[in-house]
């Protein structure tokens, strides 16, 4: 098993840019790597409605967490698209997993709902740090550029409305293309 990546090792966008005073950029990080290695309060699982594991991020999280996660997920009764549910993290460095179900195809409101629902679950559970994968961009077929725009705008609006709810949100990306998409959205936004 690879070593956990501590949140303190992942710089915020504000720190990378030297921009003090932007609450949003001080709360946001982009990390390229394996979400199952992140030692945060919760990682978000890009789940399907059954939340019983599968391919992509969902399968990787279930494999890394071990059989306890699947056992707990069996008791959840599934999860509707645009919603999220909380479980323990089991064998993961993250204490919890938030299972969020994004839409199949390009449906911005349902994707935004999955991000908001995840952040609401984190807030309600008192979790201070959350790492998101690129929800719905794999086999669910959401175009990565459009999905990233929804993710960034939704998280920004949620943090503005809930300024003391969480300390850190990490966008965990798996490849260079996604890292460039998020960097461009975060660095060139007129609101920063």
TrEMBL record:
Residues 15-190 form the Macro domain. It comes from Coemansia thaxteri. This is Macro domain-containing protein. It comes from the Eukaryota. The lineage of its organism: Eukaryota, Fungi, Fungi incertae sedis, Zoopagomycota, Kickxellomycotina. SUPFAM superfamilies: Macro domain-like. Pfam families: Macro.
């Amino acid at each position: 098993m690879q070593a956990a990546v501590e949140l303190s090792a992942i710089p915020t966008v504000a720190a990378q840019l030297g921009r003090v005073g932007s609450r949003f950029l001080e709360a946001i990080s982009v990390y390229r790597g394996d979400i199952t290695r992140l030692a945060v309060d919760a990682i978000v699982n890009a789940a399907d409605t059954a939340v019983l594991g599968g391919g992509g991020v969902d399968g990787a999280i279930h494999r890394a967490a071990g059989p306890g996660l699947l056992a707990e997920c069996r008791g959840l009764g599934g999860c509707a698209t645009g919603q999220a549910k909380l479980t323990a993290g089991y064998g993961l460095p993250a204490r919890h997993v938030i299972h969020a179900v994004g839409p199949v195809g390009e449906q911005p409101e349902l994707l935004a709902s999955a991000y908001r629902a995840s952040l609401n679950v984190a807030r309600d559970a008192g979790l201070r740090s959350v790492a998101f994968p690129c929800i719905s961009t794999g086999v669910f077929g959401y175009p990565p550029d459009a999905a990233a725009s929804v993710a960034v705008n939704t998280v920004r609006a949620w943090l503005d409305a809930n300024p003391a709810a969480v300390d850190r949100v990490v966008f965990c990306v798996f490849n260079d293309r996604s890292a460039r998409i998020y960097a461009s959205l975060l660095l060139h936004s007129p609101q920063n």
